[in-house]
Specification:
Elements (H helix, E strand, L loop, with lengths): L3 E4 L4 E6 L4 H10 L7 E4 L5 H12 L3 E5 L4 E5 L10 H4 L9 H8 L1 E5 L12 H9 L3 E5 L2 E5 L7 E3 L5 H12 L4 E5 L5 H12 L4 E2 L5 E5 L7 E4 L4 H14 E7 L7 H9 L3 E4 L3 E5 L10 E2 L11 H9 L3 E6 L10 H6 L3 E6 L2 E6 L7 E3 L3 H13 L3 E5 L2 H4 L5 H6 L4 E4 L1
Parallel strand pairs: 2-14, 3-13, 9-10, 17-18, 21-22
Antiparallel strand pairs: 1-22, 1-23, 3-5, 4-5, 6-8, 7-8, 10-12, 11-12, 14-16, 15-16, 18-20, 19-20
Helix pairs in contact: 1-2, 1-7, 4-6, 5-6, 6-7, 8-12
């Protein structure tokens, strides 16, 4: 298994470019099943999760053309030769459940195992199953597979009892080719949803209200292909800005949209981080000496993103004072703090959703294991500011979301290698 070896304490300087949004790329691959014509996608991140999503599409007959050097993907679902997805592939990726709706629209049936992904507590798929049923889908379980069939998808009114980005996108895609009108209430509002809706509309879909809690979809008979440039990854952008605050002399994070991470920027300013905001970049002047502790609570967009909580928690280990980090969205999201404590941090777990961080604490390198995607990149950041060498195992979890991360960090002056 590969690992990262990091020698900490190097001051970082220069520019780092944000790649296309992982969570947008995954949804576009699933959405390609709605059309019999090619989707041409640029700014596509070829990371572990998106490559597994492409693999799943190819496994049922979808054709793809990949240009990894230019981050371009052409995906064409003209011919689908089966409706059953491999359990081996499905178990690797939570987003695999997104194939169900478009496959039902095209083939009227789908067989898919329970999705996998990060192990950060319970992530049930009841919202998806109940949602598909409202479109008229009959769902059975057999041998750990969900077997779904429908004569014809019909529009539905769906109220989400809890806000879910992936469930919102799944129901929105399912409704595109359904008969009649679908109304989604208490929908998620993330920019990736608006991007997907706008693109599908350019292909002939009729979606209104995306980016608000109320989305209306009027079903159409078919949609065409189209071209799309993915929006930049706001989680990657925020992570790099926090890295600049922790270890940078001056780091410019470019090819991003600052409007997508306003909640983070507000909290960084309160914490004493110095940065300058431009239309498509943020320049950070790093210095932990002026950092002060601030409390945060994660929330659905446009609130503070749960995926940015781990690196922000690391930032607070270097701030003066005591703060409370409250992340109510996923059970187990804060378990990584035990690893930071093993490196010298002073973090007390109050309950599964709240920790108290006291700082500043000097961190020391050691051998650690990446537990999940967002905690994994946080441990890379921790290794970059720790004294001595840090060795990180299970870096597959990091590769799931960050393309060639060690090469990009090396260009800033980081001493990190993959072995």
């Amino acid at each position: 298994m590969s690992q990262f070896q990091i020698v900490g304490g190097k001051k970082l300087e220069g520019e780092i470019e944000v790649k296309g949004a992982k969570n947008a790329a995954l949804k576009v691959v699933a959405a390609s099943f709605l059309a019999k014509y090619p989707f041409k996608v640029s700014n596509f991140p070829f990371i572990e999760d998106t490559c597994r999503m492409i693999e799943m599409a190819e496994s049922v007959g979808v054709k793809t053309k990949k240009n990894k050097n230019e981050n371009k993907l052409v995906i064409e679902a003209k011919n689908i030769n089966q409706s059953r997805f491999s359990k081996e592939l499905t178990n690797k990726l939570r987003s695999s459940i997104l194939f169900a709706g478009p496959m039902l629209a095209r083939e009227k049936e789908v067989e898919i195992a329970h999705p996998g992904g990060c192990v950060i507590g319970k992530r049930p798929i009841d919202l998806f199953i109940e949602g598909y049923k409202k479109f008229g889908v009959i769902v059975r379980e057999r041998d750990s597979y969900f077997i779904m069939k429908v004569k014809r998808l019909r529009g539905a009114r769906i109220f989400f009892p809890r806000v879910s980005v992936t469930a919102t996108e799944a129901m929105m895609m399912t409704a595109v080719l359904a008969d009649g009108v679908t109304e989604l209430r208490n929908a998620a509002m993330e920019p990736e949803i608006s991007m997907l809706a706008n693109f599908l509309n350019s292909c002939g879909a009729r979606i209104s209200g995306a980016g608000t809690p109320n989305i209306t979809i009027r079903g159409v008979k078919e949609i065409s292909g189209g071209e799309l440039e993915l929006i930049p990854d706001r989680i990657e952008a925020g992570t790099f800005i926090i890295l600049g605050a922790l270890a940078g002399k001056e780091v410019r994070v470019k090819k991003m949209n600052p409007l997508h991470i306003e909640a983070l920027l507000v909290m960084l300013k309160k914490a004493g981080v110095r940065f300058r905001v431009f239309s498509d970049s943020v320049t950070v002047v790093g210095s932990t000496k002026r950092l002060r502790a601030v409390n945060i609570q994660t929330h659905e967009y446009p609130g503070f993103a749960t995926d940015l909580q781990p690196p922000f928690t690391l930032l607070m280990t270097q701030a003066k004072g005591i703060c409370l980090i409250h992340d109510p969205i996923f059970d187990g999201r804060l378990m990584f703090t035990d690893i930071l404590n093993s490196m010298g941090a002073n973090i007390i777990m109050n309950d599964p959703h709240r920790v108290t961080v006291s700082g500043p604490s000097k961190l020391f390198g050691r051998r650690i294991v990446s537990p999940d995607l967002r905690a994994g990149i946080t441990l890379v950041l921790a290794g970059l500011i720790a004294k001595g060498m840090t060795v990180i195992d299970n870096i597959y979890q990091i590769d799931r979301g960050y393309e060639k991360i060690e090469e990009r960090l090396q260009k800033l002056g980081a001493e990190i290698i993959r072995t």
